[in-house]
Amino acid sequence: MNIGQAAKASGVSAKMIRYYEQTGLIPAADRKDSGYRDYSATDVHMLRFIRRARDLGFSVAEIGDLLNLWRDETRQSAEVKRLAQGHIDALERKIADMQDMAHTLTMLVNACQGDHRPHCPILQRLETDQDDEDLSIRPRSGAVNRSLQ
C-alpha cells in the first residue's frame, strides 16, 4: 500500500511516517518500480504500535526503546516495566508541576482586582523573581503613579 493508505490504516500522518523513516525509528519502506513507497501489513502494525505509544506520551527515543524491546523475543518484561514506570514517574512530575502552576495562577487571579487600576499582581509576579506567596497589590518598580500627574 502507498504512504497515504498506510497513514489512513495506522492513524499516523504521512508526514510523521516520513519523519520516522528519516530518523531511523522505522526502517525505510520498500519501493515500487515507480519509486513510491510500498508499505506492508507488518509496517502498518508497527506504525499503530508507535501511534499508541505516542498517545501515551512516550517520546520518540522511548518509542525506539520500546520497539527494540518489542522486536526482541528474548527480552525480559522487567525491562519493559522499568521503561513504562520511568514514563509514569515523569508524567507524575509534570502533573505536579502543572498543578503548582495552576495553584499559583489561581492565587494571582484571585488577588487581582481586575478593575481600572494599573496595579496587577499577575504582572508583578511575572516581573520579579519572588517565590513567596505575598500577593498584595503594590506598584511595580518604576511605575508611574498617574494619580500624581
UniProtKB/TrEMBL annotation:
GO biological process, one term: positive regulation of DNA-templated transcription
Highest taxon listed in the record's lineage: Bacteria
Annotated keywords: Coiled coil, Cytoplasm, DNA-binding, Transcription, Transcription regulation
GO CC, any one term: cytoplasm
Domain HTH merR-type per the UniProt entry, residue ranges: 1-69
Database matches in CDD domains: HTH_CueR (cd01108)
Principal location class: cytoplasm
Coiled-coil region: 81-108
GO molecular function: copper ion binding; DNA binding; DNA-binding transcription factor activity
Places the protein is found: Cytoplasm
PROSITE patterns: HTH_MERR_1, HTH_MERR_2
Membrane-crossing residue ranges in chain numbering: none
Protein name: Cu(I)-responsive transcriptional regulator
Source organism (scientific name): Paracoccus aurantiacus
